[in-house]
Amino acid sequence: FILIAIISSLVNLGETEAVFRPGQRIVMLILLMIVFSPVITNRSIYAYRKRLFIYLLAGLSITSFISSVLGFLGKRFIDGYLVGWYDFPNSLGYAQGLTIIALASLLGVVSLKLKLLCIGGILVTIVAIPLTGTRTAFYSIPLVMVGYAFLKSRNIKKLFQILAIVIAGGILFLNYVDLDTSIIDRKNKLQEIEGSSRDALWKARMNEYEQSPIIGIGTFRADMRWSIVNKNGNVEAGNSFLMMLSMNGLLGFVNFCLLYLGVVIPFCKYILKKRKSGLSPFEIMLSLVITYNFISMQQAGLLLNVGLYFTGINWLTLSLAYKINRFNTIN
């Protein structure tokens, strides 16, 4: 994976605009892979990464909850989007999705008082997500809830019981709370006008792929005829898999898919088997974050955007999913 990324950058170096800074980003990607690569692991490294994952989710949950409360107070908005304590709306929206997952994962193991606080935190976060305009986090909420019900149940009867509670609670909640999706609607219209809608971004990635289908147009690079690039060289990917295809061609795309499936398929088999005897809060949390990341990868770049924290979390969760039955000795 790293080798293909380096080769693609070197092959296309002469045509790569300076704004993309491929040398600097390659070094950052190598460091990221050393820290979070699924294949670089052992029990000690796994234990360290597990603690880091839990601390990160705890920290993100606290900061995103405070940011949500600030939104209700009408504070920390930029250009009409809630950013809170984060640098831009999508960063906060992604963290809010993780907050819902983290709090939901704790519901089965905390006292009644803490359980009510977790539910309150989830509801506050759900109301605040639309204020960021982050569509992926907002649309992922029902899928995360269904996934939680599935992972918490050991049989069909228990599954339907949990689903009934979640659905009834959701209906009751929506009966009293009106979710304001006007910011999301405004963002959709604005992106249609600017040519940065998901359809436009996907077409841009395919146009780039057609230029160099084998090795790609260069890691971290985009064709500026079709892509909106900011002053730091950051590109809105539109889709992580298509971005991999356009940047690293078929070689990089197939290589990554084999790596991804090689991690996720055994992990899913382990979770499905362990579910019958009961999953730990960590296993539920990790499963939901990986599912959430997969959904997010269809709408954003979570693989090669090394300057964004959710890229690190994506690779961190994959490293924790790798051979979990062997390395996760303490739940």
Overview of the structural elements:
The protein has 331 residues and is mainly α. Helices cover 69% and strands 1% of the residues. The protein has a two-stranded antiparallel ribbon. A hairpin with a 2-residue loop joins strand 1 and strand 2. Helix 4 packs antiparallel against helix 11, helix 6 runs antiparallel to helix 7 and helix 6 runs antiparallel to helix 11. The longest helix is centred in the C-terminal third of the chain and has 36 residues. The radius of gyration is 20 Å and the shape is globular. The two termini are 31 Å apart. The mean pLDDT is 90.
Which stretches are poorly predicted, pLDDT < 50 over at least 5 residues?
none
* Widest sheet: strand ordering: 1-2
Largest sheet: 2 strands, antiparallel
Give the end-to-end Cα distance, rounded to a whole number of Å. 31 Å
Share of helix among residues?
55-70%
Q: Nearest-angstrom radius of gyration?
A: 20 Å
Helix vs. strand class: mainly alpha
| Overall morphology | globular
What fraction of the residues are assigned to beta strands by DSSP? Answer: under 5%
Number of strands: 2
Structure keywords:
331 residues; 2 strands; 1% strand
